[in-house]
Amino acid sequence: MPALPEPSSPSSHPVQGRSIPRSPTVTVRRGERVDTVPTGTRVGALLPGEVGGVLVVAGLLGQKPVSLATPLVADATLAPLTTEHWEGRRIYARSVALVLLEAARRHWPECVVRLGPSRGRTQVVAFEGAAPAKLPVLAATLTAEMARVAAEDLPIRHETWMVEEAIFLFEQRGWREAARLLRHRRENTVPLVACGEIYALGMGPMLPSTAEVRGFTLTAAENHLLLDLGRRDPRNGVQAVAAAEASESSMERAHEAWLEAMGVRSVGDFGEACVSGQVSQLINVAEGFHEKRIGQIADDIAAAGDRIRIIAVAGPSSSGKTTFIRRLKVQLQIDGKNPLGLGLDDYYVDREKTVRDAAGELDFEALEALDLPLLQDHVRRLLAGEAVRTARYDFKTGRSHPEGGPVIQLRRGDVLMLEGIHGLNPALLGGIPRPGELFRVFVHPATTLAFDRLSRVSATDLRLLRRIVRDRHQRGYSAAENILRWPSVQAGERKHIFPFQAEADAVFDTSLIYEPAVLKVYAERYLLEVPASHPAFPTAHRLRLLIDQFVSIYPDHVPPTSLLREFIGGSGFEY
């Protein structure tokens, strides 16, 4: 392997470092406390190691997350960021993953190891070419090596490289995803993060060293390992119902197969495809893939003849359920089935009767927020062939109108279609459907692209970006409001949706590989509207860095039937 070039010296750069001396001291406000400290004092020196027994992983300088190793060079407000905050959990998770890659390099230097997508509370660790029978041994060996790296208390370094140097580094080490991503970078420099001899793209702050990496577990799955952060993941042990780990669906495998066939395995590959004029083809294939899968689901339902009487569709927030249902209805009608919709949201109880969560807030996502006796009575009568006047819920007044909806009746060839977050929960309809009469569909985005072997686009971030664009573009809610609301939305999903994934008869992956490039056109400005002093700023700042990695695609290219139109507007379906 050719030797890597030495990083350029400051004297070789046309832009020099500052020549005006800094003030010898800076003023730092921490809550009510104000101190004057020497310039260059590290953030970590002014913050506790834990807050309430929870690890401090970074500092909030203003509202911007920074490494605990960051020197203070100007007056600032400072606060700790722990793993209790979703941004803190991400910082800890990426630090653990970096330690994993360094441990794998030490033990298997020629093996390609990469972090894959999330599976519930765990994250996939892929060993290319590893036989499934060897995975339990790999898990045990890697766990021991990670413990050794942690015990060495190695510094996790943040370095700034010239882009050309970084491209050369990644190409020589076989990290083609990172090298391709950097080829279209606007800036001349790029932040990298390093642990031992492993270098990765810098996507934000990390732990200052490996010492605090502990409590994780690695287990063998079907063809990969699963990394669990253990007790330092706030999602572990706090759900009312234990979340089921998401299994890889056949649609996800097929999705990844056609991406492989098109040569789009990473964000860098996607950028290259866009620049080379393949935008229309990428969009057409992605949309065609969706349509084919929706048609397959409709065909499976139609093949059951008159046996299936109810279709229930459920998925987390901003998963694209509404458009999926519209498109599934079209495909069902092509197959000779007439779907009649029944929205679960119209069966809410009066607002004053709504149950409250642990914080005392109204819990509209609880199953008990629905008038189950009324819903079940209507479903029972519809299945018996009766004409039923359905319910309607007035969201402005918070009042339920048990007979305020339209009259519907199931006739031969009709199926009842239920939409709502509880569609997979067996308690929703109890024993009303006889065996084989109920077909459940779980809808969510699953397939995302990698930045490099350490980082990838998160499906959760994709849903949040969809929600930010839709609500700011169509409903007047700001990005800041949505970001602050997001943790409670996720908590509700973990409690009421994800535990019932195994009940689904079909899974539909709503991700469109090109959509971050389109969402960027809108989200960039909406995220910039979040003030630097706002509590939502850490997430807004990180999402801006995320979408900045994508080549922009303007919405003119998006077809009116696309699921993406649900979030950016201009849909060919009536909502």
UniProtKB/TrEMBL annotation:
<keyword id="KW-0808">Transferase</keyword>
<dbReference type="InterPro" id="IPR006083">
    <property type="entry name" value="PRK/URK"/>
</dbReference>
<dbReference type="Pfam" id="PF00485">
    <property type="entry name" value="PRK"/>
</dbReference>
<dbReference type="GO" id="GO:0016301">
    <property type="term" value="F:kinase activity"/>
</dbReference>
<dbReference type="InterPro" id="IPR018163">
    <property type="entry name" value="Thr/Ala-tRNA-synth_IIc_edit"/>
</dbReference>
<protein>
    <submittedName>
        <fullName>Uridine kinase</fullName>
    </submittedName>
</protein>
<keyword id="KW-0418">Kinase</keyword>
<feature type="region of interest" description="Disordered">
    <location>
        <begin position="1"/>
        <end position="35"/>
    </location>
</feature>
<dbReference type="InterPro" id="IPR027417">
    <property type="entry name" value="P-loop_NTPase"/>
</dbReference>
<feature type="domain" description="Phosphoribulokinase/uridine kinase">
    <location>
        <begin position="310"/>
        <end position="509"/>
    </location>
</feature>
